[in-house]
From TrEMBL:
Entries under Pfam families matching the protein: APH (PF01636)
Originating organism: Flexivirga endophytica
PANTHER family in UniProt: AMINOGLYCOSIDE PHOSPHOTRANSFERASE-RELATED-RELATED, BIFUNCTIONAL AAC_APH
Upper lineage: Bacteria, Bacillati, Actinomycetota, Actinomycetes, Micrococcales
Protein name: Phosphotransferase
Gene3D superfamilies recorded: 3.90.1200.10, Phosphorylase Kinase, domain 1
Taxonomic superkingdom: Bacteria
Domain Aminoglycoside phosphotransferase stretches: 32-261
Length: 295
């Protein structure tokens, strides 16, 4: 999916765990089927999962990314829904040049494999999760960075490239007009809050029809709270979309800005992962089609 992506295997994970945390070693070690784009996951026995970044970062950036994920997991542990729980942290080695982590396994099916798009109770439960995340203490943090959750206009160059690359895949003319409208949106004085920032169907776990867990807090940050509205378009339809919005009590201005942030993620994934991660590209297409129909 990326330049210089690492080739990871169960044998590598076995060696890393044996060398650094032998008490955790359990069999079997199997790669978890996933449509994730920046980490590989290997299940370690029944209860644990190893998470290894796929692309090498410089040492400072790699440490910062793992530290941020571990801190977010600690903070998110206060919500009622199961979220990632750290077991141990692994260090770079001659065999693998990045820090890595081991987490508790959370049982459930990913929402991309179970059709909950019309499930009102699931929509309301996910809305309650978002509310609890927004209520987590920020301790004075505000948005910092160049990704989702800051100012829409700062992403103009990237969005123009994505629209160009997506010609022929989706109605880019209408989406370009929508983007121009979104760039003119203001933002009220509402404070930044904690956000999961990556509520994709593959990060939502379903057990029966219940929300069993929300995984992957690697993108979690304090940001514009409306970035967590994205399941309205990447997952829900019709009445479930309305139930999700009603649970969150979203006004028209917030809803429109949430549409904009959902577009930002989807338009970047549509063309970029067309060949290397078709499921991610299809989810982006579903999202963009919903945004066009909801406009």
């Amino acid at each position: 999916m990326h330049d210089a992506e690492l080739d990871l295997s169960a044998a590598l994970v076995r060696d890393l765990v044996r060398q650094q945390h032998p008490r955790l070693l359990a069999e079997p070690i199997t790669r978890v089927a996933s449509h994730g784009t920046v980490n590989a996951m290997f299940r370690l026995g029944d209860d644990l999962v190893c998470r290894l970044p796929l692309v090498v970062l410089d040492e400072g950036a790699a440490i910062e990314a793992v530290d941020a994920e571990i801190e977010a997991a600690r903070i998110f542990s206060a919500v009622d829904v199961a979220t990632p729980e750290l077991v141990v942290r692994g260090e770079p080695s001659a065999a693998y040049p990045m820090p890595w982590t081991v987490w508790r396994w959370i049982d459930g099916d990913v929402a991309s494999a179970v059709d909950v798009g019309d499930d009102l109770e699931f929509a309301e439960a996910l809305g309650q999760f978002v509310i609890q995340v927004r209520d987590l203490p920020t301790d004075g943090r505000t948005f910092g960075g160049d990704n989702r959750g800051g100012r829409l206009v700062d992403l103009g160059v990237w969005i123009q490239r994505c629209l160009h690359e997506s010609v022929g895949m989706i109605d880019t003319d209408t989406l370009a007009a929508m983007w121009q409208h979104w760039c003119g949106l203001g933002r009220d004085e509402a404070a930044d809050t904690w956000t999961h920032n990556d509520l994709m169907p593959g990060n939502l776990l379903v057990r029966g029809s219940d929300l069993a867990g929300v995984i992957d807090v690697g993108q979690a940050r304090v940001a514009d709270p409306v970035v967590d509205l994205q399941p309205a378009w990447n997952l829900f339809r019709g009445n479930a979309r309305r139930a999700f919005r009603s649970t969150l009590q979203v006004d028209d201005e917030e809803w429109e800005r949430g549409r904009a942030w959902s577009f930002v993620q989807a338009i970047g994934c549509l063309w970029y992962y067309r060949e290397t991660n078709p499921e991610m590209s299809r989810t982006a297409y579903t999202t963009l089609t919903a945004l066009l129909g909801d406009g």
